[in-house]
Every structure is written in structure tokens, then in C-alpha cells.
Amino acid sequence: MRKYLFIAYPVGLYLIFGLPVLLLSAILYSGGIDLLTANSVGAMGITLLHMRRKRRKMTTLPAMPWKRMFLLTGIMMIPVVSFTAVLTGKAFLQIPLTPWLINCTWSFFWVACCEELLFREFLITRMQEARIPAWVILILPAVMFSLCHRPESLSLLLQRFVLGTCFGFLYLKKRDIALCMATHWVYNMILYTFQYSLPDVTALYSASRAALNVLLCMLSLLGIVVAYSIKKSKFVGYS
Q1: Given CB 3.0 to 4.6 Å as the disulfide criterion, which of 43, 132, 137, 155 pairs with 110?
Q2: Domain-by-domain residue ranges, the chain?
């Protein structure tokens, strides 16, 4: 039984950082700062602690491929920015850009790093070493990933479970944490941009135009993931 205690490790980190993040959220919220910023501080703390203590002891893992992760993120953002500028660009002249930029560049970076390092790289690697059945390796981290988001409804629980399963499948197939982090980061930016700009896009254009934009952005993200997976050798030097 003790050899399976590692499964509780991500949840333990979330609990340790949970109370300080809640207090920070209350303080920042009173000052009018987005709650995502507080959550990102917790995600940053979890990421740095995990990398300093746990990840460096996992000798089977390669060094963190930061350059390749940022390169992939940049490539993924090219069509996303292009579609958004063409289809909904005027709306961004009317919305507060500072919180949007902070969350897209800072908050979602740390969130993607934290969740992919814990729920994909760490859990999947350790579960495979423990010879846990493949279907459990795919399902259990996705369930934990969904629950740690504190979903407010069953639909959100299922949505994040499906997302976690997709990221888990991607990591199992490609063993590439840079790809998982970049995809997760850009995915969050696409959804957040859609939600953040929807009222202004609807007022200037229409809700269907906002939906078309997010659909095209998601399809472009999927296309780049597939293309990269096929031609990964061209990116191997960026690590």
C-alpha cells in the first residue's frame, strides 16, 4: 500500500498551498485584482517546490525543455492571434487589457506548468513505474485534475475530466511535457479570451462570431499539435 502513496502527492500540495491562496485571494479581491492572479501565485509556488524537491530526484526525466515549450507556445499563438485580430479585433479597443494580458502571459503559464508537471508528468511516470494498469493511468489523473479545479457543477467536472484525459493521452503517446504545457497554456488563453471579450464582441459583432473565432482557434491549436507530433524531430534541439 505504501508504494501507492505518491498518488496523494499532488492533492497534498494543493492542500498545503490552498489556505494561503484563499487568504491572498481575499486580499487581492478587496483591491480589485482578478482572482486568477492569486491562483497563479499558488500554482507558481507548487511548481517551484515540485521542481526543486521532487522532480530533480526523478532521474529518469529529462531536463525541463523551457526553450521548446516557449517556441511551441509562440507557434501556436500565431494563428490564434491572427483569427482573433481579424474576427473580433475591434472589441479589444473597448475592454481593459491589463488584467487580460497578465492572466494570458503570467497566470496561465504557471497554471499550465503546475498542472502538467503534477497530473501528467509526475503521476503518469510514477504510476507506470508502479505497474498500474494503463486505463487507470489514463483515468485517475484526469479525475484528480478535475476535482482539484473545485468544479461548481457536474458539467464543469465532466469538461475538465475530458480535458485531463486528452492531455493524459497526449503525454502517454508523446512523453513530451513541453508539448503538454504549451497546449494547455494556449488552450486556457483561447477560452479565457472568449469569455473575457464575449460581451464586447457580441455588442460589436455577434455571439456567433465570437463562437466562430474560438472554434477556429481551437482547430488551429489541434492542427499544430498533430503536425508537431508528426515532425517532432525538427524541434528536438530546442530544449
Answers
A1: 43
A2: 2-233
